[in-house]
Amino acid sequence: MRSLYDTDFYAWTQKQAELLQMQQWSSLDLPNLIEEIESLGKQQRRELRNRLSVLIGHLLKWQYQPEQRSRSWLATIRVQRREVLQLLQENPSLKPYLQEALQQAFETGRDLAVSETNLPYKTFPSECSYSLEQILSDRFYPGESSSLTEES
Asked: H helices of the chain, where?
């Protein structure tokens, strides 16, 4: 079973599913199966951080480069918010991880904002100045009233 895991991961997954369905517990590749299940959980945490990073990066760009605001930025903010909320709805056990994810995501989001605006790091706060509620709220657009963005 190990060689199948190393040479054809998809075939390995299908074989493991078949063995589980047939309840052939002794034939399962338990070490790799355990590793893959743990990896799936880590993947969800990573996706949460990534989506928060993009969202925060765009909120920073929105706030610190208002003359460059675009429908594209607005769409990205809306999509990332929706995706984060959906991810949390599908994985409610990620909610306790949100504060930790937010701190990590802010650093990456700040890097994104710096690289995409060409503004220096000192332009942006060194710590996240938005609350989690603001970040996820469809009414929060830093530096602008929500009614203006709803018309866009």
From this structure: 2-7, 9-21, 30-64, 71-90, 98-117, 132-136, 146-151
